[in-house]
Structure formats: structure tokens, C-alpha cells
Amino acid sequence: xxxxxxxxxxxxxxxxxxxxxxxxxxxxxxxxxxxxxxxxxxxxxxxxxxxxxxxxxxxxxxxxxxxxxxxxxxxxxxxxxxxxxxxxxxxxxxxxxxxxxxxxxxxxxxxxxxxxxxxxxxxxxxxxxxxxxxxxxxxxxxxxxxxxxx
Length: 150
Description:
The protein has 150 residues and is mainly α. It has helices at residues 36-52, 56-63, 67-75, 82-92, 113-127, 131-146.
């Protein structure tokens, strides 16, 4: 019996099959495994990990990957599957959408030294169990913030 092959259709321009993205700023070079969105998500994972006071090794153990894989996720070198990102969100106590916040503004979110210091301060403050110590530290921060800069 003769079988008739279905006609081959050309990809629609702008579709994922055409190789042209609707958002060219998020498209990587040919052969590149990750793009700007992957780097942004990786930076957000790192930001949240630092907020929680976790090492890359601890995060890797919590999500069931090697340290090297967790490192590649944070750098945006390897893409993260939807299932893995959901698992990371669960472990880190944030919705999946949290990792994409700020992406529309373009580029990966790199923390500057002041942001990194603020995150570290907040993380350490949250670890203080003594209420009187927390109140004293808060009062000291208020006093320093209102003191004349010289």
C-alpha cells in the first residue's frame, strides 16, 4: 500500500520552533545552554539562599543534586526544569513566581555590596533568639541611622 507522507510545514516566524524568540533580549547565542532568564532565576536562587543563611552544599542536599549542579543553577549555566524549580521554591519557602520577579526589567539581578550586607544583617538578626538583644540591636540601628553623618 502506498503511504502519503504528510506535508512538511515551515515553522511560524516568532514561534519556539523557528528559533526566533518573541523576546530577543532573552535569547542566547546558538549553542548556549542558558540565557538571560536562566541567569536571572539563578541569581534569585542565590539571593534567597543567602537570605536563608544556607551554603550551596546545604541547598544541593535539600534539593537532591550535587554541589556542582547547584552552583551551575545559581550561575545560570544550566537550565532548571519546571519540576526542579518547584522543588527549590518549596525548600526555600517562596512561590515559583518569586524567582522571576524583576525579569521584565531586563538582565540578571546582581546584588551590590550594600544589598548583600543588608541581607546578611537581616539573616543574622532573625537568628537572634533573645528578644531583649533584638530590641537593643534595633534601637542601636535606629540611633546610628539618625546620627549625623560625618
